[in-house]
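Thread: Newbie trying to understand structure tokens

Hi all, I'm a second-year student working on a class project, and my supervisor (Dr. K.) asked me to get a predicted structure for one chain before our next meeting. I've only ever worked with sequences, so writing a 3D structure as a token string is new to me. If someone could post the tokens and maybe explain what I'm looking at, I'd be very grateful. Here's the chain:
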Amino acid sequence: MADMSYDELDGQIWFNGELLPWSEARVHVLTHGLHYASAVFEGERVYEGEIFELTAHTERLVNSAKILDFEIPYTVAEIDAACRQVVADNGITDGYVRPIAWRGSEMMGVSAQANRINLAIAVWEWPSYFDMEARLKGIRLQTSTWRRPDPATAPVHSKAAGLYMICTLSKHAAESNGYDDALMLDWRGQVAECTGANIFFKMDGKLHTPTPDCFLDGITRRTVIKLAEARGYEVVERVIMPDELARAEEVFVTGTAAEVTPVGVIDDMEFTVGDACKAMMEDYDAVVRRKANTG
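---
Reply by user tm_fold:
Sure, no problem. This is what the structure looks like when written as tokens:
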């Protein structure tokens, strides 16, 4: 798949209520979502044929659309059913699901009240987001020059396509400098998240994670907090400043794509992949597989 463009994959995509051959799921070049970023999406993982936390993802998708001032013309239950259908019909056992909703091409301009709201759901086989060897020794992060925006300037609690532009810029810059991903601060200079994952720090035996007041409170993040507390770790959500990172004993990131991935380097600081990282990796893998087996 690495040598093939995503528009050349085989299979079917659920598109506005019907399954289409992969190559026929197209939108017009004058689609509002392309020009003005009026699109919201989700990323979901399939484990052993079951989508992990499907309804939570669908509810967030619907809420993201509302934040962007449009309503997806399907219920949560209908979207859940469509996601399961496209997974089953494509024969995916372990993979990735991408629902996306966007304003169509009926109006071209900033104003778009009359545009059709479209919904498509694609699924494909997808391995670990980060190379397994990199995961086991810890990925390398570089602090980005781009900042997560003030909630007064952007719809930060929506999983909106436009908010990922600075993530792409940040990740490209990090990769060009030999890193795997970027660590992003917020507009105040506080530690926020990575380009597609939340972040945790083990300090003084506790797990600390930034308060998600200007970025998504990830579904994987919430799952890992529960798992950590079940292990007996105290989880502290708080303001974390960059000058505190040097005293962290361990660091890991969490996300649907990243799952639980240890961090070995942030800029010129090095960290050990220790017991907390390994425990959270094992516990998360166990819970997603268990839920897959129980449906």
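A couple of things are worth pointing out once you decode it. The mean pLDDT is 94. The first strand starts at residue 12 and ends at 15. Feel free to ask follow-ups in this thread.
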